[in-house]
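Researcher: Next entry in the queue.
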Amino acid sequence: MLNIRNFALVIASAILLAACSSPVKLDDKAVPVVDSGANGADTRSVNTVDTGSTDPLNNPGGILSKRSIYFDFDSYIVKDEFKALVEAHAQYLNSHKNRKIIIQGNTDDRGGREYNLALGQKRAEAVRKALVLLGVSDTQVEAVSLGKEKPKATGSDEASYAENRRSDIVYQ
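Model: Structure for this entry, 172 residues:
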C-alpha cells in the first residue's frame, strides 16, 4: 500500500514539473556592445533648460528685493533717494495686476503709542499714495500702521531709531 502511494507521489511530481516548463526558448546570443568613444566617455550633450521668465521679486540683487522706505525723524515725506524704489514697485504692480501688497508703517520707540500709530499710518499712506499716483490700482495696495511694535533694530541710539523709521512693502 505504501509503495503505491510513493509511486503515485513520484508520478504526480513528474507531471507537475513537466507542466511548469516554459515553451519559450531563451536567446543565448550576446548583445553586442558598441563603443561610443575612444576613451569610453559619454559624448552625448545635454541641452540647457529654459525655465521661462523668472519673477523679478525673487532676484536677490534686483531693486525689487529692497522693500523698506526710510523716513527722517518725525516725517512722512518719501525722500528722493527712495523714489526709484517706489517707481520700480509701481512698475511691477502695474504689470502684475493680480499681485497685492501691504505697506506697514513703522516708527522708532520715541513718542506715545497713539502718536506712533498715527505717524506709522501717515508713512504707510505716503508710500501708498505715491504708488497710486504712478498708476497702481487702489485695490492692490493696503496701508497699515504698526507704530513702534515691529522694530528692525532694538538699540536706543540714532542708528537704531533711523532703522525703525520706515515703511515696509510686503507682497501677499
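Model: The chain has a mean pLDDT of 88.
Researcher: Noted, moving on.
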